[in-house]
Amino acid sequence: MAENKTVLVVDDESYIRRVLELKLKNKGYHVLSATNGEEGLALIEEQHPEVVITDIMMPKMDGKTLCEKTNGLKQDRPFLTIVVTARINPDEGLWIKQLQDTQLMEKPFSPTKIVEAIERYLGTKK
Amino acid sequence: MKIKTFSAGFLVFLLVGHAIFMQVLIRQEQNASRNEIYNKGNHVVSLIALHTVGDFEGERRDFFIKTLTEFAFSQKLAYCFVNDKNGKPIVTLTFGPESAQIPDRIQTSSLAFTGLGNPLLNVGSPEYGMHEFSKPIYEDGKLAGVVRIGFKPPAISIISMERISLIGMLSFFIMAAMIFVYFGFVKAFKPIEVFMGKIINNKSFRMAGAPSFSKGLGITPVMRAFKRSIVELRDRIDEVEARNKELAAKNGVLRFEKNQVVHILNSVNFGMVITDIQDNVVFINSYILRLLNKQQEDVIDSPLEKVFNNKEITSFISRQQGVKKLRANSHLEVTFPELAPNETYRVSGSYLLDDNKALIGKLVMFENTTKEKEAANTTLEYTAHLSHELMTPLTTIKSYSEMLMDGEISDSETQKEFYNTINSETSRLSALIKDLLNLSKIEMGSLVLNQGRVKSDGLFEDCITSVEGAARKKNISILRDVPDNFPTFIGDKDLLKGALINILGNAVKYTPVNGKIQFSLSEETNMVVFDVRDTGYGMTEEELSRIFEKFYRSDNPQIVEQQGTGLGLAIASQIVGLHGGEIKVESQIGKGSHFSIKIPKKENYLGRE
After folding, report:
1. Distance between CA atoms of A58 and B387, rounded to whole angstroms?
2. Which of B74, B149, B419, B442 would bridge B574 by S-S if both were Cys, CB 3.0 to 4.6 A apart?
3. What is the pLDDT of residues A10-55, one digit of tens each?
4. What pTM did the predictor assign?
5. Mutate to test the interface with A, among B385, B389, B391 (most CBs of A within 10 A)
6. Among partner residues A36, A59, A110, which is closest to B399 by beta-carbon distance?
7. How far apart are CA B418 and CA B397, in angstroms?
8. Least CA distance to B563: which residue of chain A?
């Protein structure tokens, strides 16, 4: 099921990229990684990943900007975006609800939960 | 003068005038009737005298007498005598009741009369007379006889209808004029009467013998009272003037106090506008005038909506009108993009009530909340950052341990890597928490410097020792530059060591392999100076300006690679600051950075060593 599906991990923390890469590769996904929003945006436009997992606080381009910039692309080619954030108040994630196919995952997250969310999305799509 | 006397005199004058007027009327009437009789008499006697004596005799006599009788009746003829030339009566006619009274003398005496004449013959009372007209009768140029006729003068009647109506009319006009004049006088004197009555009947002006104006109108008492009142009035004016002076002094004090209040309101650091009930501006302080870039005279008495030209404010203020009780916490956030860009103002309104709790206007306050908002935003940003920094190592620890527990990592090398990562992230987390605690202690002012005599040589070597290992790994050489005599100074050795190690550690972190670091110690006037120069990546201007901010991390990928809490320099600068010292940084991209830390010596400090 996960064959030929590409997941892009956008995070400036190498440890987090590392663990997600491992987890997703174990599940059979093709994994791309980027250290900030700018790199992430370039990879989304080039590689058309089915899923994007992104942090919010990153140098150069933050996760919020990345989500807003890529939301338009989803009309032609929908894909899932999982935003991981250390949310401090419930209102903070409201902007995520305005975006298409975008979910919130609170830090500290479980890699298993992320995979479940991806499978749920790809499963309903099929 | 009393009105009664005046009226009586006027009445007497009127009666006398009337009597004279009547006499004139009677005289005129007598003349008129006499003229009428003369004309008539002459005419009639001439007509009769045209006849011949023979006409009065024989067969024509009856016709003549009949005609004469008819004529005499209509013309009120008293008598008619015709005599021949010898005086022998030919016709003797008398008419009316007076005929019997005609004395014989008249019937005979005038026989010899030959010309025109009008002797007045008195019959009875002297007023009663008759007018006789005579004319000779000629036949063939010779006197043949004489005609005499008598008229009784008509009774002079002054009480004719015309006269009565004329007199009536005159009397009416006179009466009307009198009434008019009377009321005119009354009316003209009324204000004076009322005025004087007021003054004289006024308690403070009442004097013995002051006339009461209810008795009637009179100029003299009015004038007398007026005179007396003027004296009183003058006294009163003096009194009022004295009181006015006192009031003016009080007014001066009040004006001074008002000016003081206005001055205070103009110097406060918030905007204040006071309106009347119609929302027109009655007071505006300098703060708002400066903000609006307007002059006071341009806005006073103008409607609020015209002054601010901001619908939000106007509707907010008018909405306040609908609410009976002021909601203290109701306010509005506004901006004036053209006048004060990037500034936010909080507008609040309250009612102004008088002593009877009646609404007399509104007070509108403008408070610049830009800094407040900025501070709130900074706090929010800081909290988000803090949460991110704490949650990131936690996420690593959680996810790595989950992977290990789930048996997803079978390769033993990777397992080792994962355990190491969990370990280092735990250290990172604890270092971060330690930094945060220190920082919060410093910020809250609860960090007490444990001050003592610090020997700079010991401190210098301790710093180098703690970074040597890391430097060796990257083959970075640390050059020492020290004076012959190491200075001693007063400070908290442990905290200063932490700050210096942080800066020195950064130099190691951000200098590529095989680089050089120079660590110098020197003295300036009353200062101990530590200099850290590296051959690292260097920093941009923007980075330089932000490196002491909490959680600031450069975007530079070589720097992003390095671990750090993002709090190190913030804490270091706070510690140096607590010692009364300063940190200066110079940097060039690609060449390296230079941190200079100056700590005051405070040599005369007599604390512990």
Report:
1. 14
2. B442
3. 998 889 999 999 999 999 999 999 999 999 999 999 999 999 999 9
4. 0.51
5. B391
6. A110
7. 9
8. A13
